[in-house]
Amino acid sequence: MRAPKFLGVTVMPEYIQTEGIGRVLDNLIGKAGATAVATSPYVMAEADARTGSREPPIDAGAGAVRLLDRPLWGKRELWVTTAPAFEADPRLYRGLRYQPPPPTELTRLQGGIVRDFLAAAQARHLKVYLQVQAAIPPGYRVQFGGPAEDDKPRLPDGRIPSRLDNNGSLASPHVRAYTEALLRDLCRAYPDIDGIRVDWPEYPPYTLASAFLDFSEHARAAAERLGFDFEAMRRAAAGLHELLLGRLETGQLRAWSEPDGGRYLLVRALSERPALLAWLRFKAVLVEELLAGFRRALQEAAGPRLELVPNAFPPPFTLASGFDFARAARQAHGISVKLYTMHWPMMVHFWGQELQAANPGIEERELVRTLVRWMDIEDGEARPRLADYVYPEPEAPHPVGAEAQARKIRQAQQEAGATPVYALVHGYGPLEDFRRRLRLAWQASRHGVWINRYGYLSDAKLQAIGDVCARE
User: Fold this and answer.
1) How far apart are CA 55 and CA 99, in angstroms?
2) Are 84 and 140 in contact (CB under 8 A)?
3) Is 380 helix (H, G, I), strand (E, B) or coil?
4) How far are the Cα atoms of 223, 253, 262, 263, 315 from residue 257, in angstroms, in the given order?
5) Any alpha helices (H) in 73-126, and if so which ranges?
6) Percent of the chain at pLDDT exceeding 90
7) Using an 8 Å Cβ cutoff, are 420 and 334 in contact?
8) Structure-derived torsion over alpha carbons of residues 419, 401, 162, 263, reported in degrees to the nearest 10
9) Cα angle vertex 75, ends 73, 76, to 5°?
10) Do 244 and 208 contact (CB within 8 A), yes or no?
11) Residue 83 and residue 101: Cα distance in Å, rounded?
């Protein structure tokens, strides 16, 4: 008899604070039928626009349309601040550039609720995980923190681009050392957890510029250590960047968006530019080294039992992000592949706007067609305008194909081999659209799904999870 599929839900601590441990667990188990839960090691309080960050996250302005399904302190959008849920051990961070934030009065008053929640979840037979950021010190939550200036990833010309994410260079020894110390600290503070999920252990390619990282001095040093020709990679990437931003023509777009996805032309072009291939491989090696350091830290602190589960973009975005599933599978106990389908049309829009501004003579329809095919987000023909691909409003279905989503999960699992790949479905969006996306992810993944995140899961969506997954 086949073992039941895995079903995890990410619950951020603010909902444990506002709804209470019992109600959250009743919803996860009674309505959704979850088998696992993940949270993060912080606690939250309301703030104002000057001192806090918007919840839900604004995603570089595009996500300003988002509203929470489950209100926080009676509100569907608000400004918040956070504090660590535990007191860090300073000995683990001695001599490091980055230091953990000190505990505050909020830590003292409410920090213990995270530990209580994890214990209560395990008592009710759920597996429990903590989630942290892979490369955004201090790592507790994506909106709070970031790298120092010389730890930021750079473009081939040395500039620091404007990005949606705030990841540091994956080659930075300072960023790596801090996250490894944080993982050891979490093993000490929460010794009974089943595993740790690390988010964004890659270069998230939300914008075109982000796809051309990383040529920082840290990356140069890593390339020399690993035997890569940094200058050859930098020149090749710079040449491609310059072509895209100023010398792109409609005829090139038509060729690249042929029915085969332009694969022949792509392979031919890369065969003539081996430094570009080396650059893609270099990024994949950096990601694998990052994950290997994380796994060593967990094994040293807790032994082999603790799971390392990275969250990553799906194919083909991973060619630009550096996340190679085969390499990552050598270090991870499982991999969550993000089906964050509200981001994909936003990415078409971001990339398209930059290309259109730099190449005003190209036809918009061909530009959109090419981007949609290369990102592989539709099942049929692309919509004709960039305006058709934007961050969807809360009640708008996500403009992505069902088969495209399933294909990404199959591709990731094929590369990962025996390492389980979980579809990571986002709860944002209307009920029926969420139900459809969840069903296809549940069917496409042999091992199960994670759902992000509880704040977008109305009671009706929790029930839908139970209908689709737990009572399949």
Assistant:
1) 25
2) yes
3) coil
4) 33, 6, 5, 9, 17
5) 105-110, 112-123
6) 87
7) yes
8) 80
9) 130
10) yes
11) 8
114 φ/ψ sector (left φ>0, alpha ψ -120 to 50, else beta)? alpha
Count of Cβ atoms closer than 10 Å to residue 247 Cβ: 10
Contact call for residues 37 and 126 (beta carbons, < 8 A): yes
Q: In what order do the strands lie in the sheet with 53-55?
A: 42-46, 78-84, 53-55
Residue 305 contacts residue 191 (beta carbons within 8 Å): no
Q: Render 412-470 in DSSP notation, one character per residue.
A: HHHHHTTS-EEEEEE--S-HHHHHHHHHHHHHH-SSEEEEE-GGG--HHHHHHHIIIII
CB within 8 A of 299, min separation 6: which ones?
306
Mean pLDDT (the chain) is 94
The residues near 407 (Cβ < 8 Å, ≥ 6 apart) are 376
339 and 307 Cβ atoms separated by less than 8 Å: no
Q: What is the pLDDT of residue 472?
A: 56
**If you search the block for the tokens 């032309």, which residue do you land on?**
265
Catalogue all structural domains in the chain, each as residue range(s) with its CATH number: 6-470 (3.20.20.80)
Write b or e for each residue in 257-288: b if 16 or more Cβ atoms lie within 10 A of its Cβ, otherwise e.
Answer: beeeebeeeeeeeeeebebbebbbbbbbbbbb
pLDDT tens for residues 418-434? 999 999 999 999 999 99
Nearest residue to 416 via CA among 387, 445, 390, 440: 445
Beta-bridge partners for 126: none
Rg (CA), the chain: 22
This prediction's pTM:
0.95
- Alpha carbon distance 107, 87 (integer Å): 8
